[in-house]
Amino acid sequence: MDNASAPSRSGAPRRAAVLGSPVGHSRSPALHRAAYAALGLDGWTYDAIETDAEQLPDRVGSAGPEWVGFSVTMPGKLAALAFADERTPRAELIGSANTLVRTPNGWRADCTDVDGVAGSLVEVGLPGTATRAVLIGAGGTALPAIAALADAGVSAVTVVARSADRARGVIDLAERLGVDAAVIGYAAGRDLRNACAEADVTISTVPAAAAEPLVSTVSASSRLVDVIYDPWPTPLAAAVAAAGGTVVGGIVMLLNQAYSQVEQFTGQPAPKAAMAAAVGR
Fold it and tell me: Domain holding 238: CATH number?
C-alpha cells in the first residue's frame, strides 16, 4: 500500500483507535501499541472506542489533527466506506472498509482484511499452483476472502451458504474477479466432502458453532484457514488437524491485516515480530 500520503512522523503525539460495537474484546490495541513501542513512536496511543455505524461519521469527522487513523470492525465497515473522502480500489470493489487513514485530502478508506486473508494463505502453505478453494460462509468476511483467493491465482471456488440468495454478493464479486463460483448448501454432504478433498484450501468465515455441523465433511480438507481466533481451536480446526491437514487460525489474519494498518498509519514497515509477540505468536 502506498504510504506517500501518510501524515508526518515527528515526535508529536498521535492517536489512533479501533471503532466497533461491541469492541471491548478487540485485540487490536495490543497489536498497535506493541508496534508503536517497537517503532519508538513515543506519545502515540491506540484505544478501543465503542462506536456503532450511525455514530461513526460524527466520531471520525470530529477527530482533531492528532488522529492519524481508525481501525473499523463490525458494524461500521459499510459506514466507514461511505464516510471516506477517498477509497482504495479494493475497498470499492469489496464494498466495505476496515481502515480509515488521514491524508492531506481527508480520510482514505481501505480494506486490509484482504491482506489478512492473503497472509493466512501464505501461512497455511497454499502453493503457487493452487486453482480450487472452498469458502464457507457468505457474509462480510467472505468478500475479502474471495479477493485474496483471486490474487493468489485461485480460479474456482465452491461457496457453502444457506442459500444462493445469501451468497449473491460473493458470487457477484467472484465473477468480477474472473473466478468461477458455485454455491452448495450446508447439507450437501458427499458433494461438500468431495469439494474439500479436491480443493487446495478451505476458508471458513463463520462462527465456530455455525461450522460445527460441517466437521465430518470439511475434515477432508488438506488446508484450512479458519478466521475465528477465540475460542481456539474451533471444532472444525481440530477435526482438520486430527485428519492430518494444515490449519491456520484467525490470529494470523488479525496480525496480517494489522501489519498493513500500522504501515498506513505510521509510514514505517510494521515490526511484525513485536506485534506477533503481543498476541502470543
Answer: 3.40.50.720
- Can you give the three-state secondary structure of the chain, one letter per residue? CCCCCCCCCCCCCEEEEEEECCCCCCCHHHHHHHHHHHCCCCCEEEEEEECCCCCHHHHHHCCCCCEEEEEECCCCHHHHHHHCCEECHHHHHHCCCCEEEEECCEEEEECCHHHHHHHHHHHCCCCCCCCEEEEECCCCCHHHHHHHHHHCCCCEEEEECCCCCCCHHHHHHHHHCCCEEEEECCCCCHHHHHHHHHCCEEEECCCHHHHHHHHHHHCCCCEEEECCCCCCCCHHHHHHHHCCCEEECHHHHHHHHHHHHHHHHHCCCCCHHHHHHHCCC
Residue 133 lies in a domain: yes
Based on the fold, state whether residues 212 and 134 are members of the same structural domain.
yes
Its domain, for residue 248, covers 115-252
This prediction has a pTM of 0.94
Q: Does residue 272 have an active-site annotation?
A: no
pLDDT tens string, the chain, 281 residues long: the values are 444 344 434 568 999 999 999 999 999 999 999 999 999 999 999 999 999 999 999 999 999 999 999 999 999 999 999 999 999 999 999 999 999 999 999 999 999 999 999 999 999 999 999 999 999 999 999 999 999 999 999 999 999 999 999 999 999 999 999 999 999 999 989 999 999 999 999 999 999 999 999 999 999 999 999 999 999 999 999 999 999 999 999 999 999 999 999 999 999 999 999 999 999 98
Catalytic residue among 14, 33, 77, 108: 77
